[in-house]
Structures are given as structure tokens and as C-alpha cells.
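User: Hey, quick favor. My workstation is busy. Could you predict this chain's structure for me?
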Amino acid sequence: MANDSKTWRCGKYELSFDRPRIMGVLNVTPDSFSDGGEHFDPDAAIEYGLAMLDAGADIIDVGGESTRPGFTPVNPDEEARRVLPVVRALAKEGAIVSIDTRHVAVAKAAVRCGASIVNDVTGFTDPKMVEFVKTSTCGVIVMHAGEVAAPTRTHATVQLDTSAAAFVAEKAREAAAEAAREAEKPARRRRGKLLGEPKPEAKLPGGVVQPSLPFGEPEPTSEPASEQETPAAEQVAAAETVAPAPEATEAASESNDRLAAMMRRSARREEAYVPTSQLRRFTLPDSAPIMRRVMGFLSDQARTLIHAGVSRDRICIDPGPGFGKSANEDIVIQRETAKMASLGYPLMCAVSRKRFVGAVSGVTEAAARDAATFGVCLGAIQAGANIVRVHDAAGFAQFLNGYWAVAKPQPRRAFVAVGSNLGHRCDNIRAARDMIAEIPLTCVSNSSKIYESEPAYETRQDAFANAVIEIKTELAPLVLLDELMKIEAELGRDRSKKAKANGPRTIDLDLLWMDGETHGGKKLRLPHPLIGERDFVLVPLEDLMHDPARFFRYNGVEVKEPEDRVGHIVGELGRM
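Assistant: No problem, here it is.
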């Protein structure tokens, strides 16, 4: 199940999986298979990414190249131009950003701009991508892209001839063929190796073997040279232009050709499929050979990364539904989710709106497959998937919150800061505490004393009364925040545009921290981004925990020294 002990380190963030995590898909492309062009403008993409965060997404996966069946490769310069402004803006708002790319230069630039995860659809088969991620602290997603069925053997029709003459002639042909093979052997040897033997696999430093791409042999292409992959480029993060980077040219070009060829073959297989009258004994192909190829590749690539120097807790795996696989094969792979989860790495379920989801639900239009996507994702979560990658992040957050509330009892610790400087300040704080205790799936477990503090930020106003309330809740952070906002409104808090942001208020409720939760966006930031500079929060917290400054520093929050804080405590006003 998703509430296991796995953690995923992604740069400065650490994701736990006491609940499934939602990755929202943000395609900054004109041609993605289900939402192409909707978020191609950078401003529209940024706005949509923030909206997904505010709706419940934990991660935003930004991609600038469509890899749908039959896609046309995108120049890395163009890909970087599309994604970097979006990555930078979302990271600035505290988002955990994943860059969906197979180009080393784009990955480097995106990480410099704030991306915390590299999602490589070619599964880190490019040694230069491995070299890059081993020198960074970002999380990595190893995806399998390639055919999983063993090649079918075709046999020519044989016309039997039982005559003695035919028998003698067949024996003569076999003898002649054997003699020709024996005569050819010396000529084929050169420097102790047979000509035609496969080239050795690429090696990384330390002798680690880098497997070849799992896409099968590329088919001949007659595309004009202008449509082939151009040299990769390394983006300068401070500017929006990309300079050429010869280091990535050869490997990126080869992977582009192979991935595009594989996806073209996949598209043609779907289009050319015609039902036949030939009967099959089973509804699905045998899972053993399929899972050997998928799990073998994922395990090998994860080990390659570990041997290269990438820590195990940075690695996530993804079986790559739709990438070179038929609907039957995708269903087989999804049914074996528990086996993939047993490998011990965080497991991604990235089935959103894929062709096989349409096949099992009868929904032809990709954008209309969200409900079916949720069903497949739920099955994966129950079998051990930790992260779901979806287009409709808001819809899936609602779906997951409803399911999780009844299926997984999971009270978590959280802290809420309470302040007031209008009316009967202490009475307002006590009323807020009592109303918090009435929130569904929530209880108040402890409260600090009530303190008086100097006003912060907007100093020309009356002194504040402040306290911190410790709660246990089973609600998702954004759902809890909505409940706190309702309490503010009921107690007379004015949040209209005419009210000063840090001016007088009857009540102010801030969600400071929740166990296991990291969140970014306009609506909610966790941990609260200003907690480390507020004396009127840190002092009350000392009533509830030992050394809150140390606690929050351990959780990645910068905590200022007492003399450098704002809103200093000046006295006590009594107990809650």
C-alpha cells in the first residue's frame, strides 16, 4: 500500500508516502496527445501549474516535447525555451518541479532554474545524463520505453515431397551449406573476434556497464534532414537563450531517432490492427516474459545509477505505459504493480488518458478519459503505487481525499498559529480553538499559553494576542486550510482586497506545519515560509515542543536568531 516507509529525496525536498502523491502534468507543447496547445504560452502554463498546486498536486511535471505515438522530435534549444520560464516561476512559489526531458542540456538548465526531479523517458540510458544526475541532488525517475513482447517468428509454408529423389537432393543441399559455413569461418576471424559480433556496451567510470536503449532496432527513415535531431544545447539559466553543447549531441541524437521510431511503430500497430477469426486460449498474454523485460530494465538502470553514485533514496521507477506497449501488455503490467513495488523504489503510475485506458473504458477521446484514469490509478495505489501522474490534478485530489478518508485512518500532527488584535483578543482565540475542535476528522491535542506581542510588518496598530494550537487531523492540508478560512470568516475576519494584508484583524489562522507534508503554491505553503522569522510563533511553540528552532531547521526552514525576528513577545496574557 502507499502508506509505506519509502521516502524520495528530491533536492531540498523529501517526500514521504504515508499517502499517495499527485504529480500534475503540465505540457508546454503545441501537440501533446490530450491537451496540446492549451498551455503552450508560458504565462498560461505558469497559471495552470499554480492552479494544480492549489487544487492538491504535490509535484508539477513540466515537459516541452510531446512523446505521443508518431511525435516529431523537438530541438533541445526550442524545448528549453518552452520550459525554463515555467520551471523558474513554479519553483519560486515553492513547488516541487519535475522536468520531463531526455536531453541532458535541458535537464541541467532546468535543475539550475529550480527543478528538483529529472524525469527521463529513455530511462537514463544516455551515460551523459547519468553523469549529470550523479553530480546533483535531484530526484530521478527511471522510465521503461520499449517493446516488451518477444519478436514473433514467421515460418514459410513447406510443401512436403516424400520421393527418394527429393530426400537425396535435400541432403545434398544441407551438406553443401555446411561446407560453405566451414570454409567461411577462418575469413570471419579478425583479431580474435568474429565480425558481426555486437559492439560492447558503453561503460561508465568504475567499469559499470551502461545498457543500450530498450527500443528495439530503429527502422529506416526517409524523413528530411531538417526533421532530424539537431545538436543538444546547454541552457544558461540566467538567460532565456541556449548555447550549443557538443557533449550531448551524439547520444541525444541517437536516442531521439530510436524513441521516435519506436513510437511510430507503436502508432502503426494500433492503426493497422484488424481482428481475425483466429481463436486465443487466454484474454491476455503471458505476464512472465513481459515483466522480465520491464522489471529487468528498471532494476538494471536503478543499479547503474547507484553504482555511478546516485543514492538509492533519490530513485523512482515508472514502467512507462503506452511507450511501445499494446493495450493488453499495459494491462498485464498494471496488474503486476505489486511486483514492481516490491523492488523497493517509489513507484510511479503514469497512465493518465493513455490509449489502453480508452480501450478498457470505451472512451475514444483522450481528454474524456479522466474518470477511467482514476479507476486505474486506484487499482495501482491499492497494489503499492506511490505517485500518480495525472492531467486532472484537481479531480484526482477530490477522488483521493474521499477514498483515503474512509479507507486509511491516518491522524497526523499539525500546528495552527492564532492571532487577534481587535475586540476581545483572548476570547477570539479561545473561540477559534473551540471551532477548530469541531472540524471533521480533527481534534485539538494541546495549546500554548496566550502571549502579547508587538505588531509585525504593519507596526502602526494595536498589540496582538498570539497562541499556537497543536491538532491531529486526517484531512488533506488544503482541505484543512479551507476549514480554517471558514472559521476566520465566521469570527469576522475581513479578507477583502480593501483590508491591509498585515493590518488589524479579529482572528488570524495560519497552518504552520503538518507531519509529512511539503507544499507550494499561492494558496498554501508548507512549512509556512515565514515561520522562522516570527517571534510571536516560535515562542508559543516552546510550550508544545522542545527547541522548535532546531526542529524547523531540521525540516529545512531557515530560523533567525531572536534579536533578528519580527513581532517580539512582550508578555503573557494567560492560559488558553
